[in-house]
């Protein structure tokens, strides 16, 4: 939304100067330059109640704006607008604390794991990521944890404030009618692309070998060796291995069912048999129970990369493709019932544009693997099964469906209703947020460094 520094999920890490990411049309890449450490003298430049804005936060976002400007000068008030947006985000955090709006640790952990998994996939391996940034994966995650938690809280506050706002078709037409005819946006070529994904399964021989190795480690633990020492040496869960496999406390239904069921069958100190989950194979030790919560440690082993069998996934997708092409099944229904990609399956399989959440993807921002596949396809056609890697590094197969392909054109209600409706909704949500800020900005303590005294903080950004 325009009044926040709500950058795409991976750009949001910039203020920690760890990872530079450009995201577009469902595809993102790590920046080519190495991260630049903070060389400036850092300090607090604004306080909103007990929330602080650091100078390095401001400079980090400013440097991002400079990079995106590609040599063009930025407006003189850019730093003020950035600081204003940072302060508004801190107001959200301050009010979230007052209103007891929180996110649970498991949600933060899942978001951290998702981001780190994506970065690892982009750069090639965990080891390469650690070498690139000169620090262990755990340290990178620890440095990001607070920021990710704040982002999730801010999002939850925004959802509470404006999440139920909607627009009617009449409001969309009125919004479009107010747009000056000589200022209507011009859209380049865009496509709508759907996918049905099947994750390749590890072949049985490799699974059996992984289980056998983990059973050997379990036998060593039962014979008296230290669980934590073996976890540090062998576990392939980077987040917990350095802690001796310790995961900490979780409530019921916060961990995957297979893991939780095995853990809760144990007495404190007990060791589980080998357990399979979506993440691999585990040996679990129950440490303690506290009411509805419990703490565990585990050793995770994953079957080796490249040992998956894509044949069965390809056969299944080939059959689905024939059914859709024969009109006995719609692509949307096939995606909903069969796709392993949960981000798109509920959306008829259609990929979303991460910039505006629409299903229209600019051709020049497509993942090259998708672009070169659909480039020769006709609208309505479906590709044969194609191997690829998921964002979290899993071997998979997918079929691609070209739903629409629009030529360059000036915005109009017939072709661009979805985009115009999204813009109208965004404007209406911004008004709701503006009203909330106007109501709440006087309820918090604000202090600003004299260097930025001319910036009008805690006012909405037009």
TrEMBL record:
Range of residues in the leader sequence: 1-27
SUPFAM superfamilies: FKBP-like (SSF54534), Triger factor/SurA peptide-binding domain-like (SSF109998)
InterPro entries reported for this sequence: OMP_Chaperone_SurA, PPIase_dom_sf, PPIase_PpiC, PPIase_PpiC_CS, Trigger_fact/SurA_dom_sf
PROSITE patterns: PPIC_PPIASE_1, PPIC_PPIASE_2
Keyword list, A-Z: Isomerase, Rotamase, Signal
Gene Ontology MF annotations: peptidyl-prolyl cis-trans isomerase activity
All residue ranges annotated as the PpiC domain in the record: 188-288, 291-401
The protein, known as: Periplasmic chaperone for outer membrane proteins SurA
Native source species: Hymenobacter psychrophilus
